[in-house]
Design goal:
Number of strands: 32
Distance between the termini: 62 Å
Largest sheet: 4 strands, antiparallel
Strand order of the largest sheet: 1-32-31-30
CATH architecture of one domain: Beta Barrel
Low-confidence stretches: 1-13, 21-36
Helix content: under 10%
Mean pLDDT: 90
């Protein structure tokens, strides 16, 4: 081949290469522009932040209900579902005789609702106050899923097959004492560790296990009192990774690698459930004792009290006595639901109440609640009446965009309610769908804008 032929071949190859590069760049730009899908692998989503980052979600909810992708039968339980890797995981309880029964982990196909596998273990709910079923949302980590039963059975399973990888019995293995509401705190993954709140044992409340083998790595918090029902969280503050644990006596920051204590703030509470962190602020709120707002040190692992509640009445509440609803911290404002269902806005710097409304929960009743998740400049809310709500929360007030029926409330609230039952479970928001359960079924319903266009 002559020199001219070689030049032409090089020019043709260069043109081909340029076309391939253009197509590659176009594909990358298209992928970047497409709405991002994401899973919901644990309690309140990735990082337990209660934030749903997906776009392409409906602007308004249809008044006559959502398009349901599938329904699957389940038994009773307070625990919410987790969604990861094309699968939906949820736990429930099948009674046998009296307080005895079987707890189950159920795994469904995310697209079809087909039951892929189930795993079972015995449980007895004799000493507990609320015996409807498991409380703790499953935690998914790669090809493993972890479930904690109300009676203290921790099970590590293969997420694809359901094979049991390892199991712990908190009462038999660690002599843990039963908490009032059973074992309710979902275990949390940090690096190679699965960290669990084990309730009061002879020498620890928190134990870290090797997440693959179940071997114990460390144990911490040799203190009196119950662990309660709060969920542990991991934060990055003061230049340090911190594990925040709130029991019925104090809020404690631990080194998640070693279990060593960074700081502790005493805060006695009878019903500790809701805790949230944003930036330098860490908020706990409880039904009787009300709120405690801590300010985290920006330079080292430390904290100081910014403000707290002024009383222990469940009715005469000055700030925020939350029960089941995890509050939202949005800049200098806090939004949360108080002891009788009042949605309130507070000044995050002072605790001053700015406004309140009964619009979300409708009924002014003991423990009336809703679960709130941030999605862009809106919040997505499921109230305990089985409704789904889109709204905006601002310092000026509550702005409801729309609401629609979602799921029949089926759980006995242990007090008088207009509908006779409630739905207290946290839903999962994943891949433009909501996954929600009651005591009879688990549903997957679309929230994708494209599914509701004319």
């Amino acid at each position: 081949m002559g020199v001219c032929g070689t030049d032409r071949s090089l020019r043709r190859m260069s043109a081909s290469l340029r076309l391939r590069l253009v197509l590659l760049m176009s594909g990358m730009l298209l992928a970047a522009a497409m709405p991002r899908a994401e899973d919901w692998p644990e309690f309140r989503g990735a990082g337990r932040r209660g934030v749903w980052n997906e776009t392409g979600i409906v602007d308004r909810l249809p008044a006559d209900g959502l398009k349901v992708l599938w329904r699957a039968p389940v038994n009773a339980g307070y625990s919410g579902p987790a969604v990861a890797g094309g699968r939906v995981f949820v736990t429930d309880f099948v009674p046998i005789a009296g307080p005895r029964g079987t707890e189950r982990m159920l795994c469904f196909d995310e697209k079809t609702g087909k039951l892929l596998w189930k795993q079972e273990w015995e449980a007895s709910y004799g000493p507990f106050a609320f015996t409807n079923g498991p409380h703790a949302t499953p935690t998914v980590d790669g090809d493993r899923v972890y479930a904690l039963g109300t009676a203290g059975t921790l099970v590590a399973m293969n997420a694809g097959t359901g094979q049991v990888l390892w199991k712990k019995d908190f009462v038999k293995d660690f002599r843990a004492e039963f908490a009032t509401y059973g074992f309710s705190s979902s275990p949390i993954v940090d690096g190679d560790r699965l960290i669990a709140l084990v309730s009061h044992t002879p020498d620890a409340k928190v134990i870290a296990f090797d997440k693959v083998t179940g071997k114990e790595i460390w144990r911490a918090l040799r203190t009196e009192g119950q662990i309660g029902s709060s969920q542990p969280i991991l934060i990055d503050s003061g230049g340090t990774r911190q594990l925040i644990v709130w029991d019925t006596t104090a809020v404690t920051s631990l080194n998640p690698v070693t279990g060593a204590t960074y700081w502790e703030q005493l805060f006695r509470s009878d019903m500790n459930i809701t805790m949230v962190q944003s930036g330098a602020r860490l908020l706990m709120s409880t039904f009787y004792q009300g709120p405690l707002m801590l300010e985290l040190d920006e330079k080292r692992p430390a904290a100081r009290v910014l403000w707290k509640g002024n009383g222990t009445s469940e009715i005469d509440t000055d700030k925020l006595h939350a029960t089941l609803t995890t509050p939202i911290i949005d800049g200098d404002y806090v939004y949360g639901i108080c002891s009788y269902g009042q949605l309130r806005a507070l000044n995050a710097r002072t605790g001053e109440r700015l406004w309140e409304t009964q619009a979300v929960t409708v009924e002014r009743a003991r423990w009336a609640s809703a679960q709130m998740v941030r999605q862009g400049d809106r919040v997505v809310i499921t109230n305990d009446r089985g409704e789904l709500i889109l709204a905006r929360l601002t310092p000026a007030g509550y702005q409801e965009i729309s609401r629609t029926p979602l799921l029949k409330p089926t759980t006995d609230p242990k007090n008088r309610r207009k509908l006779g039952a409630v739905n207290w479970s946290h839903p999962a928001y994943a891949n433009k769908h909501i996954y929600a359960r009651n005591d009879e079924e688990l549903i997957a319903a679309s929230l994708a804008a494209d599914d509701y266009r004319p």
